[in-house]
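Blackboard transcription, Thursday session:
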Amino acid sequence: MAQLVLNTLSRTLGNFFNAVALFLPRILSMLVIIAAGLLVALILKVIVRRIFGIASFRKYCDSAGLTQMMRKAALPDPVEFLGQVVFWVILIVFIVLGVDVLGISALREQISRFFLFLPQIFVAMVVLFIGLLIANFFSRATLLATTNANYPSARLLSSLVRVLIIVFFVTMALEQIGLGRRVVLIAFSIAFGAMMMGTAIAFGLGGRDVARRFLERQFVQKEETAEKDEEISPL
Amino acid sequence: MAEETFLSDEFIRKLTAVGEVDILVAVPTFNNRGTIEQVVNAIQLGLVKYFPRERVVLINPDGGSNDGTPEAVKNASIPDFRSLLSSSPLRTIHRISTIYGGVDGISNSWRIIMAAADLLRAKACAVVSPDLESITPEWIEALVRPVYKEQFDLVTPIYHRHKYDGLLIKNIIAPTIRSVYGVKVREPVGGEFGFSGRLACHYMEQDVWHEEFVRARTEIWLTTRAIADGFRLCQSFLGPKIHAPESSAQNIVATIQDTLGALFRCMENQQSYWVSRSEPPQPVPVFGFEYSSGLEPRRINRKKMLTMFQNGVSQLAPILESILSEETLREIQGVSQQDEKHFRFPDELWVKTIYEFAASYHHSVMNREHLLQALTPIYRGRIYSVVLESQRADAEQIERRIEALGQEYEKLRPQLVEEWARKA
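(Written on the board underneath:)
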């Protein structure tokens, strides 16, 4: 009986050690692949930084408003950002390759799914980034135009423009990765509709006098004695 | 020839028919029916009175007027010169109209004028605004003679102005050109100019006519280019400058954007000339008898000006943080807290502000149009201060203040050079 137990145990242990002996090289291969990936990613990151670190590229990013925008979005400057993107993309590719070497079929399936999903995530990120750029540009333009025209609540209007544009692009990004398409669309429609209705009510109730004055200004003849705002010529 | 691309065949044919000329006078127009006849008659009288023996031509590039301006130019005539002058014309004054247009707009009219001067081998040229109510025949002499007789290359005007007119020029454009380019030009953006044929050829050789800064304010580029390339400059006193009322209304935001944008771009374009320059600014010779007389008082909504400055500084703080240094922004915010009676925007702070805007423009810290728009509220604050300080000042005191501001610009010039050269 004892002998039987011992035999079973030794067989089980033998099988286990055999399995480990077979699996260990795969783990080692995975680690080597990941280490190689780390090295390649670091080298490519340095190369990208060098190539795009030239003054003209930085100046182009500055003049396009990219640097400023990324700073505001709490992101590093464009050159550093490109370097980081290259580093992580290379590293992830090598990690995935390394994990694939392990030969676990369930994991392999998940990895292939991940690879299929990756382009969609990338496109969504690009959409979101472009959205942030556009939102920033138009909110700043609104702030400047309304302030220089002496409109009240310039910052509120500018923030409203920014939020609307960002919401619009977030919706597009979520739709791109296929996350609750209908839910996102409905939520956006409700939020947008509510905002417009709220604005209309606010203007209707709070701006009756302003609207009356505006219409009077447009359609009732101006008085001759009205004071000119700026009669002095700057040039 | 480069001109062939923008000069019409008919215009070239008319120029060829005229042959060579000694003097070319140009009036670019666009819907100026109300004033153009008077301007053309003043030009004719000026030419007959002061240059009776010279071969002259009047060029009229028109932007597509629909009020009959080109016809008015063609038909403007003085029936009897003897009732106005002791002499009659000895030569025909040729008149040529042409249409300018396209995306380059007004800069195309300048280009047409330069090309015509080049093709006709004109020795001296003058350009006058079409909407002037105060032009006299003497203006033509004042703009042409220094070039024709004294061998100057560029004549810029000096006007007798109300103390509150031309404040953008007095507070930014002229003192910046003085400190940056080292030349004390009082009216670098005047609508009237005199220039030599040699300089016209030089302008034509420059490949910048399609650039936005040249299109927006060609006059600034003409002046700074002539300075940077070593041409001889002088100024002529013309007297009061009064425009037709409908053309004198200017949108301050757009004016600052166009004018300062053009100046800063010229500074970028010509930085090899000025960054290393160290000589003190040179005065520019002045022709003509300068006089002052009473001008109509101006109405200014000062309260609105101050409110817009205070609101602007507070609302635009996040944008101004990216343009100005912490210290300068803090000082401006301090100024905006002052009460209206004791309000002062010091010269030093103003100059620092302009230099920091120039450097930020150069380094493109944000969209350049946005950057220039952000200056408008601060400009209003400065103008409010100037108006308040000069309420009771006479012409001499105003001149002293302008000189003091110019010296402040010169004093802080090293700061501009340092900021300009700083790596982004």
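Lecturer's comment: Residues 223-229 of chain A have pLDDT under 50 and may be disordered.
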